[in-house]
Give the backbone structure.
Amino acid sequence: MASSTVEVAFLPFSPGTRLEDSTTIAGAIWRDTLAGISQASGFQGVYWGRQTENPDTIQLLVRMCYPSIDFPGHSSVLLTFTELANSYMCPDWSSKTAHEEFAQTPLYAAVSNPVTAILGAAPHMYHVGLGPLPIFAPLSGDVSPVTELATFHFAADATEKEFDAFSTEVNDFVETAKKADGHTATVSGWVVEELELPSRVERGKAFVAAFGWESMDAQGRFEKTKVFEEMMMGLRGLVKELETHCVAFAAVQQYNSHVACDKMS
């Protein structure tokens, strides 16, 4: 399955910070932060919104891809780094490279330093390959007013056999969710880095799924069904820990300078 590399950031702001109002200091900083991110080489789009359970925490997702690249047997096309790596069957190539290169530029410091100064606590970030393409539907408030983000955490000593069993079960769960009343779209994928478990006892692999819903009521109705309870019980039995939260994402913000790659992801 083709995927798009997304940097996921949890940004905890002080209570009452008015990011949506650009006439405030914090709002102006946030506006300039998003504009600065859009200038990064390989930038494709940004999705952001407040967590429903904790509105002072902003969920920020930044999507990147590499420019046009020629490789044997194919015409010049725009590729996500994951797709390019898969074309060469090179598992050591990391799709988060574009993000890491951006983090080394003066632009990154100019973008990140002001917003870091107004955070109420330290941010948390990681990279995930989300698919299938395109990925915007469950992450855009225009299409999905509510997005449920589920992160499945594995123990540090989890085996490939356990990962395979989980993949089968979570694929079945996603297909079931697609049939639920009020469901809009779902994207999912494996996290690039090992993540610290919510209990902070260890670090391990993780899998993220973003389920788009027409409303909180639609999401709640699905959670009350017998099939949800049975399938979720099975998934919980295959992982060490599970954390979920909902986000009200703003309308997707993308830029025409990369329209060819936008068509892919």
About this structure: Confidence is low (pLDDT under 50) at residues 66-95, 255-265. Helices lie at 25-37, 81-87, 97-103, 106-117, 160-178, 216-223, 226-236, 259-262. The longest strand covers residues 4-12.
